[in-house]
Amino acid sequence: IPGTTFTGPLTFTEDELAGIRAESVRAYELDRAHVFHSWSAQKQISPMVVSRAQGSYVYDGEGRAFLDFSSQLVNTNIGHQHPVVVEAIKKQADLLTTINPAHANAARSEAARLITERTPEGLDHVFFTNGGADANEHAIRMARLHTGKHKVLSRYRSYHGATALAINVTGDPRRVPNDHGDAGTVHFFGPFLYRSEFDATTEAEETARALRHLERTIQLEGRDTIAAVVLESIPGTAGIMVPSKEYMQGVRELCTRYGIMYIADEVMAGFGRTGKWFAFEHFGVVPDLVTFAKGVNSGYVPLGGVVMSNAILETFADRSYPGGLTYSGHPLACAAAVATLGVMESEDMIENAATLGETVVAPRLAAIAERSPIVGEVRGVGMFWAIELVKDKTTREPLAPYGGSSPEMDAIVGKLKAAGILPFVNFNRLHIVPPLNISAEDLNVGLDVYEKVLVEG
Ligand code: PLP
């Protein structure tokens, strides 16, 4: 079967390499002349040209292979260029490339069926968006209209997207320059024992204190003003802090008790990343709204969406939903989703992620943490892991400041890249987030590099 069996890098002929180099030189020059990059000071960047990709590897402008331990932005859950999905996109392109979303279409209907087959009973309808930020915007709009309330609670150390409201609910330093303070958003501290805001020393203490803090926030903000709590089931970009089952069940219970919609942001953690279809399944909770993007079709064509409960659906049974997007449920994106969910299932990718996470990543990272002087903590599940780097294991001072970088961090990233790894880096953390269908051999090749860099320096 293609996909899971891609192991090791491609080799190129001299002619192919010459072609790759020529096109990449031009790509770089035009990029610097005309492309404006996200989250960057435009004069300070030197973007890597990605010329080709297949399976778990990407190739730079020289044709040099990099093992993709980032899955790009944690979205290529089935690896790059899966032939079944590429073929499905081509086939759809021949049939129908775009429709007004007011129409029905086979690709969108089938994608909606397959997605809701995987969400809990009672969450049976999908509103499609173009990505994760707009999925969160729409979920919040639905919650506000459904409850007739306006405030939204979200945690510090979270990421929910870069559009106006999504960046306002985001709880990381990138919110600050974008925060105009007019969106009715309130932040609270979630559980994160390693850097506890509650002076807790055990997981049970952290859970109890974080729940009490959330309840007090709800009470003091006024239960009649709060439409929704939006929460990544496992915060991703902010550090892969796996919460306890008791915390998540407590959040669900507080939302129910105070008439608040619980929005599970599954944009990064969903579609197999944690070894289950959705990360909230680890905690036995059922949200009112689920937002998704990325892994739904591995990002081959932009797609996101909101799955809503039947109670929310009912709000809009005889009342028009005031929102829409020209490309909602785009045929190419939905055809890619149908094929992606198919290969994830037929090639046992989610089981692969769960098993390799438990049997390879967990023990190897634990061994690295034991031996490395700068690894403060490792945590995660499935193909979703964070390595917390510190200057000193006792003080836990981060190797780079929250929201910034440091020469020490840059040096580590440089060594990983020089050894052929494309890492995911966030402030003082390295995230281990390769495709779900990475082979055990490739996974170990990559982890050998992390071990060498973090243990031997
Ligand atoms: N929510 C989470 C949890 C994310 O990780 C992201 C992106 O990384 C988003 C929302 C935003 O998604 P997008 O970049 O597709 O708008």
TrEMBL record:
InterPro entries the record matches: Aminotrans_3, Aminotrans_3_PPA_site, PyrdxlP-dep_Trfase, PyrdxlP-dep_Trfase_major, PyrdxlP-dep_Trfase_small
PROSITE patterns: AA_TRANSFER_CLASS_3 (PS00600)
Keyword Iron attributed: no
Pfam families assigned: Aminotran_3
Molecular function as annotated in GO: transaminase activity
Keyword Transferase: yes
Keywords (A to Z) from UniProt: Aminotransferase, Pyridoxal phosphate, Transferase
Taxonomy, superkingdom: Bacteria
Family named by the database record: Belongs to the class-III pyridoxal-phosphate-dependent aminotransferase family.
NCBIfam families, A to Z: PRK06062.1 (NF004718)
Name of the molecule in the record: Aspartate aminotransferase family protein
Species whose genome carries this gene: Brevibacterium samyangense
